[in-house]
Each structure stands twice: as C-alpha cells, then as structure tokens.
Amino acid sequence: MQLCSFPAIDFNRQPGVGAPVWRGRAANGDELHSFARAAREVGARITAIWGSDRRAQGQGYRLQCVFGIESGHAWLSLDLPAEAPSYPDLADLFSTANRMQRATRDMVGIATIGGDQRPWLRHGGWPEGWYPLRHDAGEPPTFQNRPTDYEFVQVGGEGAHEIPVGPIHAGIIEPGHFRFSVVGERVLKLEQRLGYQHKGVERLFVGADFARGAQLVGRVSGDSSCAYAWAYADAVEAACETAAPPRALALRALMLERERVANHLGDLGALGNDAAFAFGLTQFLRLKEDWVRLNARLFGHRFLFDRIVPGGVAVDVDAAGLAAIVEQCGAIETAVKELRGLYDEHPGLQDRFVTTGIIDRDLAQELSLSGLAARATGMLLDGRAHRQGYTPPPPYMALGVRPATDERGDVAARVAVRFDEIFESLRLLRLLAVDLPGGALRVEVAPVAGGAGLGVIEGWRGEVAVGVEIDAAGRLARVHPHDPSWQAWPALEFAVLRDIVPDFPLINKSFNLSYSGVDL
Amino acid sequence: MIPLLRHIFRTGILTEPLQAPDEGPQRELERLHDELLGILGRALTIREVDAGSCNACELEVHAMNNPYYNLEGRGIKFVASPRHADMLLVSGPVTKNMENALLRAYECTPDPKLVVAIGDCGCDAGVFGKSYASCGAISDVLPVDVRVPGCPPTPLAMMQGILAAVRQAK
Predict the structure, then answer these.
(1) Per-residue pLDDT tens digits for A101-155
(2) By the number of CB atoms within 10 A of the CB, which of A70, A184, B156, B157 ranks highest?
C-alpha cells in the first residue's frame, strides 16, 4: 500500500490489535529523504528515529524512522552498509529529528551526512568512537569521567548574558541543564542540554527475555509506566503475531486512564503552586494520594508498575474492586469540578496562566508535537480517538473518546486540557468498569525468531512508541522506547521566548516533560 | 475568597499519624519530632538529588509533602541548595553523566551531613545495575547512612528512613 502519496515504497499493515502501523523499506537514503519530504507535505510528524547494529546477522546497520500519519504510523527502515553507515539529515524537514539523530550516532555510530554533529547522550563518561549498542562493543575502555565542554549557541549584543541552570535544579525534579540567554529579565534564547539521566537502558534490553524487557520498559519513565508497558506489549505481540485477550485490553485501558488521571491531578496542583497558590497543591495532592492508594489496594502498586505484560495483564479486578473504582470516579469528579471553579475564578492564578508560554498550532505542527501539548494548540490529535482516516485500537475503538482541545496554546490552555482530560478519563473509567469483558487475562507469547513490532500508545503526555526486534534465539535483539518529550522539549525552548525568566518554572511545569524518558 | 476559605474549612485536617509497622500508631510522629529537635535543636533540611532515577522515586518524595504525610508540618523541609541542607536524599542509579554533579552537591553540603539512598536503584542499582553508563548504587559514589528500598519506596518508608538516619546520627 502507498502512503503519503509516495509511490516508490510499498507499506504493509503490521499484524496484531494495537494502533495501526504500516511497515515499509527505503531502498536508499535518497528514497528515505524523499519519503520524509512527501510525508511533511501532507502534514505528517516525525515520531521516532533509532538505529540497530545487524552486522552479527551478516548485514550492516539499520536505521528506523517512524512517522505519524493520518491513518496511524508509518515505520520505515533503511539498511546501511557496515563500512559506511550514514544517511541524509532529516532535520532540514523535521527539526525535532536533530536530537534523535545525534542520540542514534552516540549509541550506534550511524551518523547523518552533514547537519548537527554535536554529541547528545555522551557527556564524556565514555570515549568518542565507542558505541554502546554495537554488538562487538564489549566493555567500555577504562576512561576517566570528565564532563566535556558543550558548544551552546551563543547570543551576542549589548547587555546579553547567560544564566546556566542545572543539572541539579532547585526543586525535586529530574536533572537537566538549561542555558538561558537573557537581556535583563527577558529570555532571548533557551538551549537545553539533556542526557544526565542516561543510564544505558537500551543496552540492557539486548539479549533479555520478554519478562525482563517488560520490567525495564516500565521503568523508562516512571510516571508513564503503563503507557510504556502497553506499547512494549503491543510491539512484542505484533512481532510474535499474537494478541492479548479482550479482558486484558480493557484492564490495560483502565490502568492507562488511571495513570493519566494521577499525573494530571499532580500537575494541576503543581501548576497552582508554581503560581504561588499553595492551596491548589495541597488540594490536588490530596486527591492524587486517594487515587494512588486505590491503585495500591486493587492492583498492588501505587503507580501500577509491572501490571501490563506481553500477552495480557498480571492482575485482575473483582466486582467489588470495579465498584470502588466507579465510586471513586464520582468523588474525584465532584472535587475536581469544584477546584476547577476556584482555579478559573482566581485572578492571580489566571494572570500567571493566560498568555504565558504560548506555542501556536503551526509551531506544534512544525515540531511534530503530540499529546496534550499539541491538543492545547487546537490539534485534534489523540491516538485513543477516531479521526478522519484513523480508527483507534480496542478497547478505545468502542468508547468514543472525545479528545480535549484548547486553541490558545498557553499555560492556561494546557491547564484546561488537563482538566477536560480528567473528566473524559473518569467517563472512560466508568464505561470500562461497568462493562468489563470476561475471559482470560493473558495468553502465552511464543517468541518468533527475527520478528519485529512497533507499539504506539497515547500516554498522558502524548505518543509513547516502543520498537522491538527479536533475535534468532527468540530473545530481544533491540528495544527502543520513545517518549513524546523528544518533540516537546524543543517546544519548551520556543514557549519561553515571549516571557521572562521567572515564568520559566511555570511554563516548564505546564509541559512537565520526562528527562529519563528521553535520556534512556 | 469566600469559596476558597469554605473549601479549606470543609477539607479539614487530613494529616495522618505516622504508623510504624512494629509500633503503635500516633506515638511515632511525636517521637520523630521530639528526636529531631533533640538532635538538631532545629528543623531538618533536605536536599533531594535525582542522580539517575526513572522519576517514580521523585513522585513519592513529592507525596511526602501532601497533607496526609505533611512532612513539612513535622519540621522537615526540602531546600533548593545543598549548602542549606542537613541531609541528601538521593535516588539512583548514579549515572556517569550525573556522577560529577552528585559529588559536587555532596561536597557543598556542610558537615555533619547525612545521606539517605532511596529506591531499589539507589540502594543496590536495581534493575539498571552497573554499566558503561551507570556507576551503580549511591554507595558506590558516596558514603550512605541509610538505605530505603522499594520501587519506588512508599512515602511512609522514606519518612521512616529519614528518621532512622537521624537516630543513627545521635
């Protein structure tokens, strides 16, 4: 099948019941670049880029690119020769490809022809020219861990100066470095340097079995554990041409929506706090605590770690548990409605929220943004919802999800989308709880040697994608987990440009991006 | 303003007694507070450092400040600078890319200082282990006083870990 009006590549639908994925192969770098150009012209997004070393199989390297298209996702791979693994720079078409390409070079040693060649994940803890994901990498050479200098883009002119922030921030948050260039209090430029959370997750997947893979993938970004575990399970099931039973799919959705509500509750409180409204933090953290305590009671874990596994789910809920969920949804809905009224009516809070940290819809499109940040610019993009040419995977297919959007693109819009998404998730939770299908919780997944699959899940931030390749022995050859923060971090660099330095914490919190999810 | 005050009034005080599994409820909280004052003569300040976590430990650190656990109400406060801290609360594993920053934060913390390692990854490197990118547990990089395992540890377990570190220092 042809995608994005590009005749040269034939795409085939991936098996399984997950979100629709179309797989194709580019014959060469030019064809990849031409497809990317055609995709951009029809409004597609770049979702993920990663590389794998296939020399042990007598091949070269393989570049994997995933594009978000109208009907789902197009997964395009390009084989590269072992002696000259390079490919055309896609950042001229999709600017957010930049960091993904640099990370691919740091990890596998396949690089773009031209373009930004600065390292991204490698800070100096291991030597240049040693690539952790090459099959013959072995142990790294003994090396002194000295942070390397990083070439930040300099801003000149009278009165311009830099404010370096991080990696350890003032609050209780993950590490990363922000370099502000300012005149007075106005932000002229923000450049991020991430990678501090890089703990080598991708290499740990190599040679692991499916169970160990599930354990790791659920800890790529702890706040999105369900989204990652489900995307990974979808990918493994597609690779092994099997599918989870209906009850498992409904329970996965139940857990994913509970994860979404938990995070939105926490963020809404923190957003109030960052605008000096401590009342909001106290109230929302109280609701979040009630919420995660029920998780612990019914599912055995406050954040639902390790409950979604390849083949199905590892936990069941009885009728009393489902009744408790429905009852809690009612209580939380009443409380959040009341708090929303208080937020909306608070002049000091609205003064900080409205027109702060704006990104418009064109920019969101340009940056391939997904998730709540994209919907807060008016985009009707939600992997759980029907749209022109796209049918969501079960169980969302039958739930009629109404995506929350707001046209304004500012902090206030991201707050409003969070509120609306809480109400929608509560509605979905009730639907799922009152009509949970019976049957098995889990099927055995027999590994298919050489199989490959891609899972995409609409997590609370946006699209979480996990690509899986299986080796000849039926173990994991390569897993690439991909966070929507790859696209949203650059959006944050733009969002601060019309504002002042003291607005940054608020704007940052309105996105609440994952560091661990992109640093891997 | 009136609706706000009404909401605060209706919510009431939610803070729960800190229960230790091996001890009766109620007492533990008061003893914690008394001990802290006895040892330090003032409140305890903590600098939390994420040295490479998946961010779940940080979610639970935040939860310690929710009204149910109300850590700050017990005189224990998170501060922005290690120079203002009595204790470092560190989640792991310690990545190679964070090793230097963590060591500098430790050096900046005035003596006598306490280090509490939180989470399975902070205690023994957890699922990530030692690798080209990970130095391993917090104790592979810094002297650690108390370890609080869990993936992530519950807010209650962390509060008990903080208390244990203070007790040890006595």
Answers:
(1) 999 999 999 999 999 999 999 998 888 889 999 988 888 877 788 777 888 888 8
(2) B156
**C-beta separation of A91 from A116 below 8 A:** yes
Is beta strand A463-470 parallel, antiparallel or unpaired with respect to A476-482? Answer: antiparallel
Question: What's the pLDDT at A452?
Answer: 95
* B61 vs A146, A172, A196: nearest CB: A172
- Residue at which a domain ends, from A70, A97, A113: A113
Nearest residue in B to A335, CA atom: B7
Instruction: Note whether A511 and A518 are within 8 A (CB).
Output: no
The two structure tokens encoding residue A484: 């929507």
Ordered domains of chain B (ranges, CATH) = 43-169 (3.40.50.12280)
Range of the domain at A430: 205-211+221-484
Here the CATH number for the domain that contains residue A284 is 1.10.645.10
Considering only CB atoms, which chain A residues are within 8 Å of B84?
none
Q: Does residue A9 come out as left (phi exceeding 0), alpha (psi in the -120 to 50 range) or beta?
A: beta
What pLDDT, on the 0 to 100 scale, is given for residue A267?
96
How distant is the Cα of A378 from the closest Cα of chain B, in angstroms? 29
**pLDDT tens for each residue of A422-445:** 999 999 999 999 999 999 999 999
Tokens of A405: 């959007």
Task: Give ipTM to 2 decimals.
Answer: 0.93
Interface mutation target, options B4, B53, B81, B96, chain A, most CBs of A under 10 Å: B96
Q: Is B101 on the interface with A (CB under 8 A)?
A: yes
The answer to whether the Cβ–Cβ distance between A175 and B101 falls below 8 Å is: yes
What are the start-end ranges of the E strands in A44-153? Answer: 45-53, 61-69, 72-80, 86-88, 111-113
- pLDDT score recorded for residue A410: 95
Preferred mutation among B5, B48, B55 to probe A, highest tally of A CBs within 10 A = B55
Let me know if residue A464 belongs to a domain.
yes
Are A79 and A228 members of one domain?
A: no
Number of domains in chain A: 2
Partner A contacted by B14 (CB < 8 A)? yes
